[in-house]
Design goal:
Helix 7 crosses helix 9 and helix 10 runs antiparallel to helix 11. This protein is α/β, with parallel strands linked by helices and 569 residues long. It contains 17 helices and 19 strands. Strand 16 and strand 17 form a beta hairpin. The protein is 43% helix and 17% strand.
Length: 569
């Protein structure tokens, strides 16, 4: 039958809970767990990935297209033909993930043809990119040439946000130089068909500065940060070759009423990234990135990362929760609420991700909880170790610990040449005390003697032990025979003072009692072992007890075989 857990003191638990909450806030705001946060997110988001919408079609500038149409870049006439082909098939919209920021110097007519084709379609979105003019210089917006920008239905930024590890987890629905005035390319494409439904209430975490905070006109400002639930694999959309669309090898029914994203996927052309949870060998083109972003918007599956403030607050509450729960009956053993909270933290993170479309990283809270659990295990092991080496009644060292300490100190004494004294004692007529006044009185006497011995052996290396029954030992490193005898005398004085205290008012107080002491001092040159040292001290105790009322302790040593008789008190 297990013993019930003691009632915890609420003040220490409350103070510890405040400390745990403060540590969780520090960890959450420091950003030290960012790599682990990303690793956890990559594993959890795989189950939240949305299916590829069949209305999204990617037109690839692939190896087949390069082989048929020649090396890149192609004439703008070719793009004009593609736009006209797609217009005739009545597609919902066309997003070009191809930068058209410079005029064709040797074919201005091609630029004019493309501009007119874009204008005729009325549903073409062109990209805007931000790049530094030179290394470490200010950023500029690379926009389509004026003819194309004026003909396009909309412009959108085509930034592919990458984390430090090269993984594309997030996107910014609005961004721009000086202010976030450009929608993302996929958002701009979707707004062609839903101008009022998309953009009024964008998902994502707000990042843009308020009007009170000045922003440099040369700074690329992002807003509405979202985490994208990429399809698995990230290129799971319908892909068709650019040349097949141009040459009408694709049935019009496969394109009609769909969203078209045109981009480069040929090997060695265009930026590549890795989607969350994908192997390093699996890469994703910028076109597939925009397709996933459009898929997320169509399915309203954007994941909003929790703000740093709310992340810290929630981590703090979860970190303090086990200590608060431990004040309740049934949860007083701290490991129970700690395990429940750790499991609950993971479940909460998964539920928020899957059903709340919000990302809360459980790592800061789990780290603090794991630290608390480790400290609890350490204290448990230390307490178990202490109990294994301690006497349950008096709290002193037990025989096992004493034997190890005696062997250890004897080795030190041999190396250093310092004396080592050992006092062995027991309570006189202890059996008679138990028989006449009961075991409670005997236990009280043992505890009282333990307290007296502890008060006289206060140095860090001094050891007081209960060897069993009423027998005690005091190990005194670097203590001479004369100093050991003085300590034995003070112990008897303490016992005499104890005997003169009135105890009638306290029934649990120990009765007056006396003790006999045997002393042995090991000095340099003696080759005695631990058993020999103890046996000599025990023999001195035996002689002191045999002396009866004429001695209180007997002392043996290298130069003093027998101690001087002292009156017992």
């Amino acid at each position: 039958m297990s013993t019930p857990a003691p009632t915890p003191k609420w003040k220490p638990r409350l103070l510890t809970a405040v400390g745990a909450a403060a540590l969780a806030i520090l960890v959450a705001l420091s950003g030290l767990t960012a790599p682990l946060d990303a690793w956890i997110y990559d594993r959890l988001v795989l189950g939240a990935a949305a299916d590829a919408d069949p209305r999204i079609v990617v037109v690839d500038v692939d190896q087949k297209s390069l082989a048929e149409l020649g090396r890149w870049p192609w004439s703008r006439r070719t793009h004009a033909q593609l736009v006209d082909r797609l217009r005739l098939t009545e597609v919902k919209g066309i997003a070009f993930n191809v930068l058209l920021s410079e005029p064709a110097l040797f074919d201005p007519e091609g630029d004019a043809l493309l501009a007119r084709a874009i204008s005729r379609s009325g549903r073409v979105v062109l990209p805007v990119l931000a790049e530094p003019v030179q290394l470490n210089s200010s950023t500029v917006e690379l926009m389509p040439i004026p003819e194309f920008a004026a003909s396009a239905a909309s412009l959108g930024h085509a930034e592919m946000a990458l984390d430090d590890d090269g993984v594309a987890r997030s996107a910014y629905l609005r961004a721009g130089l000086g202010s976030p005035h450009w929608p993302a390319l996929a958002l701009a494409l979707l707004q062609l068909d839903q101008p009022s439904g998309v953009g009024a209430h964008l998902p994502g975490r707000r990042l843009a500065a308020t009007g009170l905070d000045p922003v440099s006109p040369f700074e690329w400002v992002r807003d509405y940060e979202v985490l994208v639930p990429f399809t698995s694999p990230p290129n799971a959309f319908r892909h068709v070759s650019y040349t097949d669309v141009l040459n009408q090898r694709i049935p019009a029914s496969l394109l009609r009423g769909n969203w078209i994203i045109v981009g480069v996927s040929a090997t060695g052309m265009g930026p590549l990234a890795r989607a969350p949870g994908q192997s390093p060998t699996t890469s994703m083109s910028g076109t597939d990135y925009q397709a996933n972003l459009l898929n997320m918007l169509l399915k309203r599956a954007a994941i909003t990362p929790m703000s740093e403030g709310w992340q810290a607050v929630l981590a703090a509450l979860l970190s303090a929760l086990p200590l608060l729960l431990s004040l309740l009956p049934g949860l007083r053993r701290i490991w129970r609420p700690t395990v429940l909270t750790m499991v609950g933290t993971l479940v909460l993170s998964v539920l928020l991700l899957r059903y709340g479309h919000a990302w809360f990283s459980p790592v800061p809270a789990l780290l603090v909880l794991a630290l608390g659990a480790s400290l609890w295990v350490y204290r448990l092991l230390r307490r178990t170790h202490h109990q294994a080496q301690s006497d349950a009644l008096t709290g002193l060292a037990n025989r096992n610990r004493f034997d190890h300490a005696l062997d250890h100190e004897l080795r030190i004494a041999r190396r250093s040449g310092q004396p080592l004294s050992l006092l062995v004692m027991d309570i006189d007529h202890f059996k008679q005390l138990n028989d006449t006044q009961g075991h409670a009185a005997g236990d009280a006497a043992l505890k009282a003697l333990g307290r007296i011995l502890r008060s006289r052996a206060r140095r860090p290396r001094d050891l007081v032990a209960r060897l069993g029954g009423d027998e005690f030992a005091v190990l005194l490193p670097e203590t001479s025979a004369q100093a050991a005898a003085t300590i034995a005398t003070t112990i008897h004085v303490d016992l005499a003072n104890h005997g003169r205290k009135p105890h009638g008012a306290n029934a649990s107080a120990p009765p007056p009692f006396t003790a006999s002491v045997g002393i042995h001092t090991y000095v340099s040159g003696d080759d005695a072992g631990p058993e020999d040292v103890f046996d000599r001290a025990d023999a001195a105790l035996y002689r002191a007890k045999q002396a009866g009322r004429n001695r209180s302790f007997s002392h043996t040593g290298e130069h003093e075989p027998v101690g001087t008789p002292v009156q017992r008190i």
